[in-house]
Inverse folding.
């Protein structure tokens, strides 16, 4: 929504945000891929629909290489491993010990099969030698509802969302998933620091348009459009 405000200021036109969750971002990507290349429909997408879905699924309704024209990368980010404040889990080591003692009992949520959160959990299973329950959701709001309600053991959340929730006291964070600590939550160590050697996962967000759309990239650069 911040990007849409900047675009509106730069081009003097309204940009409406239409959320299309589902299929790890694939539903929104399909909508944009089939839209007219008239500059009125743009896609803000993370790695899921552009990089992961075409590899994960035998068939997707779009080709990320030919159905879109890239405009700009917006950001890159990593996740925090978080639990609700009332959770009995006190640390990553505690979480992993519980997972080893009771395989297949600890659950985590993600926004879809093959999404960044799902892959973060799968990597933790592989490197940590544990078995977890992955619960895919259609959107982030449902994950938060179940996490705070005690129906999920933990989850992987983008730092931009996790930081204010931690500050409010609703959740606690144990670690971040990137190769380095984040300036957003510098107190959280990386999973690699905690002994999970080789663990590193994150995502990017970018802006794309339907193929054959006149490129916005030059105009965005000229107008210095950033999310601040």
């Amino acid at each position: 929504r911040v990007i849409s405000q900047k675009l509106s200021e730069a081009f003097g036109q309204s940009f409406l945000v239409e959320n299309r969750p589902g299929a790890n971002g694939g539903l929104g990507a399909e909508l944009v891929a089939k839209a007219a290349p008239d500059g009125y429909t743009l896609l803000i997408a993370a790695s899921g629909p552009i990089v992961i879905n075409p590899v994960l699924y035998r068939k997707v309704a779009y080709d990320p290489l030919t159905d879109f024209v890239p405009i700009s990368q917006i950001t890159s980010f990593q996740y925090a491993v978080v639990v609700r404040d009332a959770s009995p889990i006190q640390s990553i080591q505690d979480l992993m010990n519980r997972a080893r003692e009771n395989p297949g009992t600890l659950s985590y949520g993600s926004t879809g099969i093959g999404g960044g959160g799902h892959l973060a959990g799968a990597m933790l299973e592989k490197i940590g030698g544990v078995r977890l329950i992955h619960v895919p959701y259609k959107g982030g709001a449902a994950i938060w509802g179940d996490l705070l309600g005690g129906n999920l053991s933990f989850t992987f959340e983008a730092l931009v969302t996790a930081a204010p929730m931690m500050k409010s006291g609703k959740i606690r964070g144990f670690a971040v998933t990137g190769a380095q600590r984040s300036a957003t939550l510098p107190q959280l160590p990386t999973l690699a620091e905690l002994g999970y050697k080789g663990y590193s996962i994150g995502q990017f967000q970018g802006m794309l348009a339907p193929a054959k759309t006149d490129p916005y990239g030059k105009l965005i650069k000229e107008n210095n459009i950033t999310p601040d």
